[in-house]
């Protein structure tokens, strides 16, 4: 179907459902018999508008026809064309045409049918000379204020100091290069993140709005930002074309800037730098110099790297092995490409998590530890600006080696290079937990949440820190906030149950854990929890989880914690010993949970704490 034919079909479907205010993108896609993502891409490619924006424009154009007939009131027309609120209709109409529906319907405008909306807008302004006087006075006032209170380069406008980069839509006919679209989005986020006076939302939260049909204002409100960058990408035989626009959605939607970029594949690596520089200048952020020079590499090596990163993000054993293969291809082409070494270390770390046999897992970690250190050191040697390499190195030193002070040194170095790296703040929160500085730990967790506000893992981290500080009401509120957004997120149900337990509310604790096992499909546990006492339920859980071979026990520190629910100290120490033997990564943080106070006087527990480097004196 031709583009014009497709648009006619879309318009006919919208007009057929004109009065239905609930007829949106999803309903339109169903009528057309296509997916929402296909509808998004097709409309974006043809009109350079979002699907929501195009639907709104069709409704407004029909409204103009009804206004011209002068048979209905403005409010009646608003409902006739599918706006649930006359005030919202007025706003959208004014945004599109420059004047209100009532003004259009008045005699002075309606009797000028040959004029375009822009012509009408100009004449309506000409009929109001006081507007020009007001504008002139406003300019004088602004100049006076700037003269008295000049903005310095180090104090950018706060209302434009936060941004989310939405995933680039791939509008290509043949979508075989999704890894480049994802990689370029990530690269733009990374480049903007290096600016110290700009808050940039992490990819995890931004990716939730891929193919979204929500209004820009809703997206910005949920992410807590003032600016959005959205765009599309089209691949040709030997080049790539990227279209981006910068939007200020609130209080009224403004399209601040837009541009198109076309590069050959050989120059693809420079695209993110070009776009990021343009955005920085557009929102009046002063960059002391240009962004740090991007690591140079050949186009083939860069594409292998982007494929590897795309596979790494899928986070399963098969994809991680394939990612390592792609990284080896990239490094065979360019052995001095630093990001490939950093990502290689991440793949080694990721693969270890999927090994179920505890003995094999420990041996693999010890053998890959050398390879991980070698890769990270090489990345830092080749490019000292790679924030993620420093942060990963810090995490390895802390969680693998219990070298917490070195962990802090490298993580802080990484954050200095990229103040928007949410993983860095999570790592610092972990560090302060180990050192017993819970106020700082909570502060770092909240900073991570600010940068990644819709990542349930990050949101639960904040709740966990409240639990460690024994601020259970705050923890319960935070966990419930997570569950409002992600009703099936098991870690939130688990944490909520623990917070209730520590508040001595066993009934609500058991209800939360019942929901957890309902999600996991553990029907027997659900039945026990719903019909038996708290203690019987816990003992049944322990019987089920401790009946297998300890070689395959994946959560010994959690089993240790649950033993303490029934005050079985020896059972708890048995599983803590198992977690310590196999160096389970969550062990140091689980030992600091409040119900482990039952073991604080146990010499075995004290010795283990010293070996791990936990500062127990701050956890009386």
Automatic annotation (TrEMBL):
KW Transcription (keyword) present: yes
Residue ranges that the Swiss-Prot or TrEMBL entry lists as coiled coil: none
Domain of life of the organism encoding this protein: Bacteria
Intervals holding TPR repeats: 456-489
Keyword field contains Zinc: no
UniProt keyword list: DNA-binding, Membrane, TPR repeat, Transcription, Transcription regulation, Transmembrane, Transmembrane helix
GO MF annotation: an example: DNA-binding transcription factor activity
TM stretches of this protein: 130-149
PROSITE patterns documented for this protein: HTH_ARAC_FAMILY_2 (PS01124), TPR (PS50005)
Protein name per Swiss-Prot or TrEMBL: HTH araC/xylS-type domain-containing protein
């Amino acid at each position: 179907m031709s583009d014009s034919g497709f648009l006619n079909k879309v318009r006919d479907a919208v007009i057929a459902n004109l009065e239905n205010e609930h007829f949106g993108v999803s309903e339109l896609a169903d009528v057309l018999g296509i997916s929402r993502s296909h509808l998004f891409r097709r409309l974006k490619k043809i009109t350079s508008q979002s699907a929501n924006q195009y639907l709104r424009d069709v409704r407004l154009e029909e409204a103009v026809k009804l206004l011209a007939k002068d048979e209905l009131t403005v409010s009646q027309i608003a409902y006739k064309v599918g706006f649930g609120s006359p005030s919202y209709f007025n706003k959208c109409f004014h945004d599109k045409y420059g004047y209100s529906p009532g003004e259009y319907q008045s005699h002075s405008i309606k009797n000028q049918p040959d004029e375009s909306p822009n012509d009408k807008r100009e004449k309506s302004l000409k009929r109001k000379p006081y507007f020009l006087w007001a504008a002139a006075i406003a300019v004088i006032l602004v100049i006076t204020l700037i003269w008295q209170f000049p903005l310095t380069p180090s104090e950018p406008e706060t209302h434009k100091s936060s941004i989310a980069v939405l995933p680039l839509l791939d509008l290509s006919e043949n979508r075989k290069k999704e890894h480049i679209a994802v990689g370029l989005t990530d690269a733009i986020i990374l480049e903007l993140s290096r600016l110290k006076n700009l808050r940039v939302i992490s990819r995890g939260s931004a990716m939730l709005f891929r193919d979204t049909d929500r209004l820009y204002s809703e997206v910005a409100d949920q992410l807590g930002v003032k600016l959005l960058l959205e765009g599309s990408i089209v691949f040709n035989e030997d080049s790539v074309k990227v279209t981006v626009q910068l939007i200020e959605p609130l209080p009224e939607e403004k399209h601040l800037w837009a541009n198109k970029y076309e590069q050959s594949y050989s120059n693809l690596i420079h695209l993110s730098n070009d776009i990021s520089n343009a955005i920085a200048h557009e929102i009046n952020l002063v960059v002391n110099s240009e962004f740090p020079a991007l690591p140079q590499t050949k186009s083939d090596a860069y594409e292998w790297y982007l494929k590897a990163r795309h596979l790494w993000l899928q986070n399963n054993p098969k994809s991680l092995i394939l990612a390592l293969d792609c990284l080896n291809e990239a490094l065979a082409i360019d052995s001095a490409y630093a990001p490939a070494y950093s990502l290689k270390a991440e793949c080694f770390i990721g693969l270890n998590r999927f090994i179920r046999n505890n003995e094999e897992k420990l041996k693999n970690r010890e053998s890959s530890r050398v390879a991980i250190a070698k890769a990270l050191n090489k990345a830092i040697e080749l490019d000292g600006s790679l924030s993620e390499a420093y942060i990963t190195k810090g995490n390895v030193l802390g969680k693998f080696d219990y070298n917490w002070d070195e962990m802090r040194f490298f993580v802080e170095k990484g954050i200095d290079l990229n103040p928007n790296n949410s993983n860095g703040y999570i790592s610092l929160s972990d560090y302060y937990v180990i050192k017993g500085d819970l106020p700082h730990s909570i502060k770092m967790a909240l900073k991570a949440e600010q940068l990644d506000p819709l990542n349930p893992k990050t949101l639960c981290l904040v709740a966990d820190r409240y639990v460690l500080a024994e601020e259970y009401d705050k923890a319960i509120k935070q966990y419930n906030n997570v569950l409002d957004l992600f009703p099936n997120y098991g870690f939130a149900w688990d944490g909520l149950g623990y917070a209730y337990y520590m508040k001595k509310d066993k009934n609500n604790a058991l209800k939360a854990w019942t929901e957890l096992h309902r999600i996991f499909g553990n029907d027997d546990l659900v039945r026990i929890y719903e019909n038996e006492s708290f203690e019987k339920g816990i003992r049944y859980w322990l019987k089920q989880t401790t009946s297998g071979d300890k070689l395959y026990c994946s959560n010994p520190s959690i089993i240790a914690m649950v033993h303490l629910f029934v005050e079985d100290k020896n059972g708890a120490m048995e599983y803590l010993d198992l977690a310590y033997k196999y160096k389970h990564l969550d062990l140091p943080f689980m030992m600091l949970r409040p119900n482990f106070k039952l073991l604080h006087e146990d010499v075995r527990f004290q010795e283990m704490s010293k070996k791990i480097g936990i500062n127990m004196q701050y956890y009386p």
